[in-house]
Amino acid sequence: MKKLFLSISLIALTVMSVVAQDVTGKWKTIDDETGEAKSIIEIYKKDGKVYGKIVEILDPAKQKAVCSECTGSDKGKPIMGMVILKGLTKDGSEYNDGTITDPTSGKVYKSYIELEGENKLKVRGYIGFSLLGRTQYWQRVN
User: Fold this and answer.
1) Domains and CATH numbers, the chain
2) Which of 35, 85, 120, 122 could form a disulfide with 52 if both were Cys (CB 3.0 to 4.6 A apart)?
3) Which UniProt keywords apply (predicted)?
4) CA-based end-to-end distance of the chain
5) Rounded CA gap, 54 and 38, in Å?
6) Which sign does the torsion angle of CA 19, 21, 25, 30 carry?
7) 3-state secondary structure labels for all residues of the chain
């Protein structure tokens, strides 16, 4: 009887820890080409959707950069503080139906994000459908 109770408790704790994992918080972006850390993104929820803004640029030479290649309301705005993930909604284990902006090129892509562990976030930007795109893995900042 004790073994059954212990097994049920262990399963419940495992399920609760998976459910408790959330994409909100601060994440370190990694450059796909150089492997170097580039920035810190804060992911937050607003009106039932998920957004992410740049809260720190790690290269001192780029901290005052503006998005000269962006279009619309982001054109010419500082990259520091820019909301680059917009309007993602939860769908099972992933958040999708939103966009991600590459502040270097100014391009906006469809996007989805998904936790791949407590401290690893899969971030995919794509054109059209998700097979045509690029994936990055961000690391949680504690």
Assistant:
1) 22-140 (2.40.128.520)
2) 85
3) Signal
4) 39
5) 10
6) negative
7) CHHHHHHHHHHHHHHHHHHHCCCCEEEEEECCCCCCEEEEEEEEEECCEEEEEEEEECCHHHCCCECCCCCHHHCCCECCCCEEEEEEEEECCEEEEEEEECCCCCCEEEEEEEECCCCEEEEEEECCCCCCEEEEEEEECC
pTM (2 decimals)?
0.83
d(CA 57, CA 63): 5
Closest CA to 121 of 22, 55, 20, 14: 22
Residues 6+ away with beta carbon under 8 Å from 13:
none
Contacting residues for 116 by C-beta, under 8 A, at least 6 apart? 122, 137
